[in-house]
């Protein structure tokens, strides 16, 4: 299932490490994850989210503010009953944990480029295989997954298509143009609209959209730390100016949550 990020041959378990036939060896960390991100594939010394960003996201999600999003995602995954599934860009594992609980008889794989995020994710579910790796070089065999999850993360469509088995599907979850609209109105003088279906234009040949839906609800954040965490886990935390960020943190915030789900299936050969 897992492949060597250097030579793409299969990895097999040897004591507390994984090794390919050419002798490339990857030790399992004491937390339980496996690092399959060679230094030559890194864009920086510590790619991905830093510890502060990871902690902010973990605290916000564990407070339950996005629980309906995770529950719906897990239900949609459960309906397909994949034998093996992959969560691309798993972050600190909140959504991955919901998927794993909905699919107790399946084997899950979850990866992120941030080692700090994966270290936190390991604490959530021991059965899931947690991996530090690049989304652009997925260390999984071709045609090996019946489902791939992409949640608030960038996506390499060709790699997702490669690891999906024929008839398997990608479940993508991302914001619509209404998502956090009131928050954005507080932060910016001009709120730019965007097309929340533009990703459909990127679907490669050999895949097709088979389902789409949007989940809406209103979220009220009474706690200043929750508001601070929300800013820290979104691009708004560094795009907006400091004065407007401070004003958001100071007062209770009520804002719209609007998330789109798309199933995109890989056609049978």
List keywords for this structure.
about 270 residues; alpha/beta; Rossmann fold; eight-stranded mixed beta sheet; three-stranded antiparallel beta sheet
Description of the molecule:
The chain has 269 residues and is of the alpha/beta class. The chain has a single domain (12-266), classed as Rossmann fold. The chain has helices spanning 51-62, 67-80, 94-102, 115-121, 157-163, 181-187, 224-232, 236-239, 242-250; strands spanning 12-14, 17-19, 25-27, 34-35, 84-88, 107-112, 129-132, 145-151, 164-175, 207-221, 253-266. Strands 4-7-6-5-8-9-11-10 form an eight-stranded mixed sheet, with helices on both faces. A hairpin with a 2-residue loop joins strand 1 (12-14) and strand 2 (17-19). Helix 1 packs across helix 7 (224-232), helix 2 (67-80) packs parallel to helix 3 (94-102) and helix 7 (224-232) packs antiparallel against helix 9 (242-250). It is globular and about 60 Å long. The chain starts with 11 loop residues before the first strand and ends with a strand.
Which regions are unreliable across 5 or more consecutive residues at pLDDT < 50?
A: none
Domain count, please report it: 1
What is the count of β-strands?
11
Cα gyration radius (Å): 19 Å
Number of helices: 9
Largest sheet: 8 strands, mixed
Task: Write the CATH fold name.
Answer: Rossmann fold
Q: State the CATH superfamily name.
A: Vaccinia Virus protein VP39
Q: So what's the overall shape?
A: globular
């Amino acid at each position: 299932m897992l492949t060597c990020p250097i030579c793409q041959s299969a990895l097999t378990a040897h004591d507390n490490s994984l090794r390919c036939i050419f002798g490339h060896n990857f030790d399992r960390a004491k937390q339980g994850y496996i690092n399959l991100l060679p230094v030559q594939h890194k864009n920086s010394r510590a790619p991905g989210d830093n510890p502060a960003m990871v902690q902010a996201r973990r605290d916000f999600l564990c407070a339950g503010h996005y629980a309906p999003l995770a529950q719906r995602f897990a239900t949609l995954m459960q309906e397909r009953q994949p034998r093996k599934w992959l969560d691309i860009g798993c972050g600190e594992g909140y959504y991955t944990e919901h998927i794993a609980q909905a699919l107790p008889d399946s084997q899950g794989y979850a990866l992120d480029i941030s080692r700090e995020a994966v270290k936190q994710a390991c604490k959530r579910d021991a059965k899931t295989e947690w991996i530090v790796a690049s989304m652009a070089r997925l260390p999984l065999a071709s045609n090996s997954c019946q489902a791939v999850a992409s949640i608030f993360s960038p996506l390499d469509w060709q790699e997702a298509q490669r690891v999906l088995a024929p008839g398997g599907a990608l479940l993508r979850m991302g914001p619509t143009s209404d998502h956090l609209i009131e928050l954005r109105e507080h932060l910016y003088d001009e709120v730019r609209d965007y097309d929340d279906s533009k990703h459909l234009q990127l679907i490669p040949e050999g895949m097709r959209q088979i389902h789409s839906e949007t989940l809406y609800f209103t979220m009220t954040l009474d706690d200043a730390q929750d508001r601070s965490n929300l800013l820290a886990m979104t691009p708004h935390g560094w795009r907006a100016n400091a004065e407007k960020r401070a004003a958001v943190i100071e007062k209770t915030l009520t804002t719209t949550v609007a998330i789109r789900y798309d199933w995109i299936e890989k056609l049978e050969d």
